[in-house]
Design goal:
The protein is α/β, with parallel strands linked by helices. It has helices at 17-23, 60-73, 102-112, 154-166, 172-189, 203-213, 234-239, 260-273, 287-296, 307-318, 324-338, 348-356; strands at residues 33-40, 46-48, 56-58, 77-83, 118-123, 193-196, 220-227, 277-281, 301-305, 342-345. It has twelve helices and ten strands. Helix 8 packs across helix 9 (287-296) and helix 9 (287-296) runs parallel beside helix 11. The protein binds ligand PBG.
């Protein structure tokens, strides 16, 4: 039956807040948000991240304070990233396997303090390797001594250019062999969920096998199944001190010029390997991808509003050009409408505050 142009009035259902609230299908609740936090070794460190106003690198003791604070404000889950001192970085990223690194220490502190939040850990090597790629390289870099101050020397720049030109990239199978080890370490320290973010093939199989073998069959895997090589990670690489020292990540992260079918394949593969949940990342520019993946898989589908997205909202808000609360909440509804079960966002604390008002 076709609608009559004379009797239809779409505005009838927009009359008044009570009616609009009654009809709102897309909702946000505190349980839908995950707050990322950055930890580094040391004591009493609370270092602001300049390109991400309101975000900090924290030493484990300060991270514990932050977590108690977040828990008190109603945040239910956090995603932990390790920031690594330059002298602790090497070609293989072995500091990731040190049970006393900042991530493991923070997990233990949180568990011992009885913090009632889900602990999720980012599982990658880019923060831990001297070259900044997400795992050991297929061909080792020449064994030149590398000091902390070495980063910007001509010799190093020359080496980096040569590596880039030679097309050296991350060794997939060596990386996944290590990833299982890192996952077990996180699980032992108290991680509830591990989140591999390196876009290595068969990473989920390797991690699931390692966790089960080590007696952690209950630890979940949230796979960054669909992760694009994106300019929106810029501020994060400052925050995590993890920019690639040569080349870029396009040899393993996805190409945004391809359509959603590749994304669906990635997600289905990870689910087949045992991923309990999958993630699409970044968020704002990938709502179509999120929607397609959500419809293709049966597992919960998350979205990550990444550092560059956060920085853009913050910058525009600070300039007085947008209403921050209105725009950020609008964005969150878009993520949920596109199918996100939950949202990882640096805005988690502020959103919870806004939801309370
Ligand atoms: C890799 C990782 C990255 C992000 C999360 N995990 C950076 C990258 O792939 O370069 C980016 C998150 C953000 O930008 O907020 N460990």
């Amino acid at each position: 039956m076709s609608e009559s142009l004379t009797t239809t009035r779409m505005r009838r259902l927009r009359r008044g807040g009570i009616l609009r609230d009654m009809l709102a299908q897309i909702t946000l609740s505190p349980a839908h948000f995950v707050a990322p936090i950055f930890v580094r070794s040391g004591q009493a460190i609370r270092r602001p991240i300049l390109s991400m106003p309101g975000q900090f690198q924290l030493s484990p003791d300060m991270a514990l304070e932050e977590l108690s604070d977040m828990a008190a404000r109603g945040i239910r889950a956090y995603l932990l990233f390790g920031v690594v001192d330059a002298e602790d970085k090497d070609e293989a990223g072995s500091h990731a396997h040190d049970p006393n690194n900042a991530v493991c220490t923070t997990l233990r502190l949180a568990r011992d303090a009885g913090i009632n939040m889900l602990a999720i850990t980012d599982l990658c090597y880019c923060e831990y390797t001297s070259h900044g790629h997400c795992g050991p390289l297929a061909q080792p870099m020449e064994k030149a001594p590398r000091r902390k101050t070495d980063k910007y020397t001509t010799a190093n720049a020359r080496r980096s250019r040569a590596l880039h030109a030679s097309g050296v990239t991350v060794d997939n199978d060596a990386t996944i062999a290590q990833l299982g080890r890192q996952a077990v370490l996180h699980a032992k320290a108290g991680a509830d969920i591990v989140a591999p973010s390196g876009m290595m093939d068969h990473a989920v199989t390797a991690i699931r096998t390692a966790l089960d073998t080590a007696g952690f069959p209950e630890t979940s895997i949230l796979s960054y199944a669909v992760k694009y090589a994106s300019g929106f990670y810029g501020p994060f690489r400052e925050a995590a001190e993890s920019p690639p020292q040569f080349g870029d990540r396009r040899g393993y992260q996805m190409d945004f010029r391809r359509d959603s079918r590749e994304a669906v394949r990635e997600a289905l593969l990870d689910v087949g390997e045992g991923a309990d949940m999958v993630m699409v990342k970044p968020g704002m520019a990938y709502l179509d991808i999120l929607s397609a993946v959500r419809q293709a898989v049966d597992v919960p589908c998350a979205v990550y509003q990444v550092s560059g997205e956060y920085a853009m909202f913050k910058a525009a808000a600070q300039a007085g050009w947008i209403d921050e609360k209105q725009c950020v909440l609008e964005m969150m509804h878009a993520f949920r409408r596109a199918g996100a079960a939950f949202i990882i966002t640096y805005y988690a604390s502020e959103i919870l505050e806004w939801l309370r008002q």
